Amino acid sequence: MSQSAPELETAGRRLPGDLDKAEMMDRIIRVDHAGEFGAVQIYKGQLAVLGKTASAQTIQHMAEQERRHLEKFEALVVERGVRPTALQPLWTVAGFALGAVTALMGEKAAMACTAAVESVIDQHYAKQADVLGPDEAPLKAVIEEFRAEEAEHHDTAIARGAEEAPAYPLLSGLIKAGSRAAIWLSERV
Ligand SMILES: [Fe+2]
Ligand SMILES: [Fe+2]
């Protein structure tokens, strides 16, 4: 996507064969709502296991920010009449399970999960911010604000030993692949 034409309106940033603007906006709101919903579930799963450990306060803080992100996208779903993803029941279970299972592997594995998910979300929000023009400035500002917080979650997780988790490259690779698949599906289904 071109950063050379920041004055272009959202629809003007499309290439031939791309989605029309309405459909593109639907996908953006749907997938972000799904992602923030999933994030809330992941941190819930982590807290169910690690709620009494040294990491609890850190995770609690991230969980609160995710709840704020989710509330914003819930409001946008209503405001713009977007159909939420049909996969929400799946993300309820999968998100919680991902959080809980990695937490059961230890605090560092939980942090590896956070670092992997948040790095994918960071890239995802960056891509979205790039296609949104001045006609979508308020949404773009929201996405950029949330993106900064996701990056902060990523950095916190690295600082708390994510990369020292057992089988870190494998674990991280699997979770990133899963997150990308979840994004792809939630845009469409
Ligand atoms: Fe978030
Ligand atoms: Fe996050």
From TrEMBL:
Pfam families: COQ7 (PF03232). One of its GO terms (biological process) is ubiquinone biosynthetic process. Fe cation 2 binds at residues 66, 118, 150, 153. Its cofactor is Fe cation. Gene3D superfamilies: 1.20.1260.10. It is a peripheral membrane protein. It is an enzyme of class 1 (oxidoreductase). Its EC number is 1.14.99.60. Signal peptide: none annotated. InterPro entries: Ferritin-like, Ferritin-like_SF, Ubq_synth_Coq7. GO terms for cellular component: plasma membrane. It is found in: Cell membrane. Fe cation 1 binds at residues 36, 66, 69, 150. GO terms for molecular function: 3-demethoxyubiquinol 3-hydroxylase activity; metal ion binding. It catalyses: a 5-methoxy-2-methyl-3-(all-trans-polyprenyl)benzene-1,4-diol + AH2 + O2 = a 3-demethylubiquinol + A + H2O. Keywords: Cell membrane, Iron, Membrane, Metal-binding, Monooxygenase, Oxidoreductase, Ubiquinone, Ubiquinone biosynthesis. Binds 2 iron ions per subunit. Pathway: Cofactor biosynthesis; ubiquinone biosynthesis. Belongs to the COQ7 family. Catalyzes the hydroxylation of 2-nonaprenyl-3-methyl-6-methoxy-1,4-benzoquinol during ubiquinone biosynthesis. This is 3-demethoxyubiquinol 3-hydroxylase. It comes from Oleomonas cavernae. The lineage of its organism: Bacteria, Pseudomonadati, Pseudomonadota, Alphaproteobacteria, Acetobacterales. The gene is coq7.
